[in-house]
Amino acid sequence: MHLEPSGRPVADILGDVRQGERISAGDAHTLLVEADLLELGLAAREVRDRLNDPTVATYNIDRNINYTNVCTFKCTFCGFSKGPASLNLRGKPYLLSNAEIADRVREAADLGATEVCLQGGIHPDFDGDYYVQVTRTVKAAVPSMHVHGFTALEVTEGARRLGEPLQSYLIRMKEAGLASLPGTAAEILDDRIRRHLCPDKITTAEWSYVMTEAHGIGLRSTATIMFGHIDGPRHWAEHLEVIRRIQRAMLFGSFSSRSPSIEGSVMSSRRLSSDRTTDTREIRRVSLVPPQRGHEAFSSTSAKDL
């Protein structure tokens, strides 16, 4: 895919949005480049109010549990992992025990949380059964807790290390108590960008395959975008189009946007130029590209993953 702006006037595109018509990926590109933020936001609000009760806002209380920062992958933007590309960066490597994970789950429940988000590095000693066991640990600690866990990369690696088909592996994860997958590991769904940001990570097609397989067995998922590094509006529009293609058949639970935190990462040694630094306006522009028909609508959340 190589998108260019559609060339249509912004007013015409937003008119289609207000009428509930599907806009093209090229139209989305045009909005990202040319639309006034307030005008775009008002149109997005109209869509939101048409598809949802405007008097109701929903949220959940959750806790992120990052069980390890040890990772064999080499994402250049990552300020969290401890691995081959970061031996001289950040703090000490750690791996939580199952008992520590259970304690954090119970603590979260005591504070009102109904969900935990489980994510971590790809530890060299993990096999796929590690993620199954962590899921069972959570459900044993608090049976009612919603388990929102394991990125498309984690479940791909889990299945691969066991030599198990992905669908079979996801079914076992669901039986253990997994309810939904976070959309992280998407970063920018454009392989030209991914070759620089995360060259050994899953491809756009592989990320899409995991989400499709997960939805196919009854798991839910969210979608994310991480932008503002070496990408631009064309890549954002292409990313949104990948999400929308999947969503034509299966609904994502939410869509969140965030900029990279590169301090302490490999990328921090080569400072981003000012025109590549994501500001609040750009984040909101991406988040406010309006959803189309009701069965494809997704909520736009804050820059923090669910």
Distance between the termini: 29 Å
**Sheet having the most strands:** 5 strands, parallel
| Secondary structure tally: strands | 7
CATH structural class: Alpha Beta
- Assign an overall shape: globular
Name the helicity range: 40-55%
How many domains, in number, for the residues? 1
CATH topology: TIM Barrel
State Rg.
20 Å
Mean pLDDT: 81
CATH architecture: Alpha-Beta Barrel
Order of the strands making up the biggest sheet = 1-2-3-4-5
- Put simply, the count of helices is 11
β-strand percent reads 5-15%
Low-confidence stretches are 262-266, 268-306
The CATH homologous superfamily corresponds to Aldolase class I
Order of helices and strands: HHHEHEHEHHEHHEEHEH
Structural class: alpha/beta
Verbal overview:
The chain is an alpha/beta fold and 306 residues long. It has a single domain (10-296), classed as Alpha-Beta Barrel (TIM Barrel). 42% of the residues lie in helices and 9% in strands. It contains 11 helices and 7 strands. The model is unreliable at 262-266 and 268-306 (pLDDT under 50).
